[in-house]
From TrEMBL:
<keyword id="KW-0482">Metalloprotease</keyword>
<dbReference type="InterPro" id="IPR036779">
    <property type="entry name" value="LysM_dom_sf"/>
</dbReference>
<keyword id="KW-0645">Protease</keyword>
<dbReference type="InterPro" id="IPR051156">
    <property type="entry name" value="Mito/Outer_Membr_Metalloprot"/>
</dbReference>
<feature type="signal peptide">
    <location>
        <begin position="1"/>
        <end position="20"/>
    </location>
</feature>
<feature type="domain" description="LysM">
    <location>
        <begin position="443"/>
        <end position="490"/>
    </location>
</feature>
<feature type="region of interest" description="Disordered">
    <location>
        <begin position="235"/>
        <end position="257"/>
    </location>
</feature>
<keyword id="KW-0862">Zinc</keyword>
<keyword id="KW-0479">Metal-binding</keyword>
<protein>
    <submittedName>
        <fullName>Metalloprotease</fullName>
    </submittedName>
</protein>
<dbReference type="Pfam" id="PF01435">
    <property type="entry name" value="Peptidase_M48"/>
</dbReference>
<dbReference type="InterPro" id="IPR018392">
    <property type="entry name" value="LysM"/>
</dbReference>
<dbReference type="Pfam" id="PF01476">
    <property type="entry name" value="LysM"/>
</dbReference>
<keyword id="KW-0378">Hydrolase</keyword>
<dbReference type="InterPro" id="IPR001915">
    <property type="entry name" value="Peptidase_M48"/>
</dbReference>
<dbReference type="GO" id="GO:0008237">
    <property type="term" value="F:metallopeptidase activity"/>
</dbReference>
<keyword id="KW-0732">Signal</keyword>
């Protein structure tokens, strides 16, 4: 969560796309898709250019570091394989400063990969395979097709004209919660059909081969992702981070591993560029950026803003540039900020107006209180939308230097108290606590004689699942034999 925060109410589409191949040849349907995708239209470019800055704000911004030109170079090189007009110039490739394993594309040739997903890769071919998969979505116009389907099935409700993407939960608050605030990645990405995902994998393999890369790279990347997904699922019991990784919008990586490997056997190519990739990867930020706040267990801590809070047991957090989203089975919340004049009552009223849009929400009386020495104010509105009755709560806090922050929460009617412990947990971060927050980084190390998976995993900057994390990070197995001189990745402070 950056220093300036706002609730985003936008819908874009993203994903991965390609054409189905049989025995190394495209099916008639796949050939038709490619034939239709020979150029990026002016309309698509305008649409992408409009959404691009909003997406950057939501996903941590463009990550301008030493690795950035390398990612752009690889991405534009693989985009050329699509045959989309002047692809090297028409495609915009962005490395995002996001701690989420994700990659996606939007119309107009905009392709994105997060630094977190890049850290999971082990060579340049895997990077090219992921970016090629996304280029395939652009080439096959999957975004436009899913957007049309979403618009036909969207929930247009009381709290704004936000197109529905992925609902935030199966409970009564799910649909309304989607309209109020979304949850970062889940709001900004749409799930594609299995057929479209397979088309995307096929195109990614095809592009890899035509560029001279080992076509098996997409399969090995998917295998690493499946392993990381399993670790994230296990860690959720102790870490309140949600798992909106690449697998969320590009589902079932485990099943896709064997399919992509089978397809790759029909194509040629050997280039992996492992040493070059690892040399460029060394030093990459891993996990949360302290400048945007850190998720540690069930706590969110922001050293620059000087605050912290804790979410209830069983709830997950996703830290974005503009807000922190909190999700559970039937309730959701978002922590953000807005302009503050010094009047906390007015601040709460303005927050309700921002949520309601053109609809006035009847929240009754705004109550004042103090939370851990912080002046606070809150109110709850009972709202009926889509035949569901929910409570919408705004709980705001006044900090020093004329700053204020607030939770926007949506819960089933009568259950707003589920977030009371969270509201009461907000407090100032001490100087000692702020100083103790350190970023993690990927370090590439050389295996020495006597090193093992277990000994190197012990150096990982985590308290749990050290071996499992090391294995997934390096695309290995737990009983893998490491050779002296071999390069591997670890995560350190």
């Amino acid at each position: 969560m950056a220093r300036r925060i706002k609730i985003l109410t936008l819908m874009i589409v993203s994903g991965v796309g390609a054409v189905a191949l049989v025995s190394g040849q495209a099916t008639p349907q796949a050939q038709a898709l490619v034939a239709q995708a020979q150029s990026i239209t002016a309309s698509e470019k305008r649409q992408g250019a409009e959404v691009h800055p909003k997406l950057l704000e939501e996903f941590g911004g463009a990550y301008q570091v030493a690795q950035t030109p390398y990612v752009v170079q690889v991405g534009k090189g693989i985009a050329v394989q699509s045959g989309l007009g002047n692809a090297r110039d028409d495609f915009t490739v962005t490395l995002l400063n996001s701690p989420v394993n994700n990659a996606f594309a939007i119309p107009g040739g905009y392709v994105y990969v997060t630094r977190q997903l890049m850290a999971l890769m082990n060579d340049e071919a895997e990077l090219a395979g992921v970016l090629g998969h996304e280029v395939g979505h652009v080439a096959a116009r999957h975004s436009e097709k899913r957007q049309r389907a979403s618009q036909r099935n969207s929930i247009i409700g009381l709290l704004g004209q936000i197109g529905a993407a992925v609902l935030l939960g199966d409970g009564a608050a799910g649909a309304l919660g989607q309209q109020v605030f979304g949850t970062g990645t889940q709001l900004l990405t749409l799930k594609y059909s299995r057929r479209q995902e397979e088309e995307a994998d096929d195109l990614g393999v095809r592009y890899l081969s035509s560029a001279g890369y080992d076509p098996r790279a997409l399969s090995s990347m998917l295998a690493s992702l499946a392993g990381q997904q399993a670790i994230d699922s296990r860690a959720q019991g102790s870490d309140a981070r949600s798992v909106p990784e690449w697998a969320s919008t590009h589902p079932d990586p485990a099943r896709r591993v064997s399919r992509a490997a089978t397809l790759a056997a029909r194509f040629s190519g050997t280039q992996r560029n492992r040493d070059v990739f690892l040399s460029r990867l060394d030093g990459l930020l891993y996990g949360d950026d302290p400048k945007q706040g850190m998720v540690q267990g069930r706590e969110f801590l922001h050293p620059d803003l000087g605050l912290k809070f804790a979410v209830p047991q069983g709830y997950a957090m996703q830290n974005g540039t503009s807000s922190v989203s909190i999700t559970g089975q039937s309730s959701q919340a978002q922590f953000s900020m807005a302009a503050y004049s010094g009047d906390l009552t007015r601040y709460v009223d303005q927050a309700f107006r921002a949520v309601g849009g053109n609809q006035q929400l009847n929240y009754g009386q705004i109550q004042r209180t103090t939370v851990n020495g912080l002046p606070a104010a809150f109110a709850t509105a009972r709202v009926t939308s889509n035949r569901q009755t929910v409570d919408v709560t705004i709980f705001a806090y006044s900090f020093a230097n004329n700053r204020a922050y607030h939770f926007t929460a949506v819960t089933p009617a009568g259950q707003s108290g589920v977030f009371t412990p969270m509201y009461q947990s907000v407090r100032r971060l001490s100087g000692t606590e702020a100083a103790g927050i350190r970023p993690r980084r990927v370090r590439v190390v050389t295996v020495a004689r006597g090193d093992s998976v277990q000994s190197l995993a012990a150096r990982m900057a985590y308290d749990d699942l050290k071996v499992e994390r090391f294995v997934a990070l390096n695309g290995l197995t737990a009983n893998a034999a490491l050779a002296p001189g071999q390069k591997v990745k670890i995560v350190t402070y």
